[in-house]
Fold this protein.
Amino acid sequence: MFTLPPLPYAYDALEPHITKQTLEFHHDKHHNAYVEKVNGLIKGTEFENADLETIIQKSEGGIFNNGAQVWNHTFYFEQFSATPQAEPTGKLMEIIVRDFGSFESFKEKFSTAAATLFGSGWAWLVVDDSGTLGIAQSSNAGNPIREGHKPLLTCDVWEHAYYLDEQNKRPAYIENFWKVLDWKVIEGRF
Ligand code: MN
């Protein structure tokens, strides 16, 4: 059985960029609902004792959708901080510059991927087996682990991630997203 991980900071820690109200709904209602649903769905199936990575790689339908959403949200919430490191350093910064030209160019390309994803889903920075970085878009509960790529950071562009704060203005949410993204966490994943 999976449990809802607590938010790794206070609900008001990311204000004004992401509000307490958004985090209360996003974590306590949405993330929690995915945990409860996947726990109900895996009972009596081959995934009853599987970890989330196995569910992401091998399951279909409701088990995949809810299991991947549990993983995606835990990964998303963990990458923010009230006192974020604003830019990558060291080896990660080096390969961002190598693969995207500059950090600013990476941010622009990632923001465009997040803004232009049609409907609900996620934008990702991923690294492949050869160590090359890439930007990916996935619809709904999609996760690059399914394609064999390692996720480094993600932006949730489901409307529930920003509608209370920004209503229909997804680009305003993406701009605020960068202000609370902690590159210390992303470097740790890398
Ligand atoms: Mn979400």
Notes: Residues 60 and 67 are 10 Å apart (CA to CA). The mean pLDDT is 98. The first strand starts at residue 121 and ends at 127. The first helix runs from residue 20 to 42.
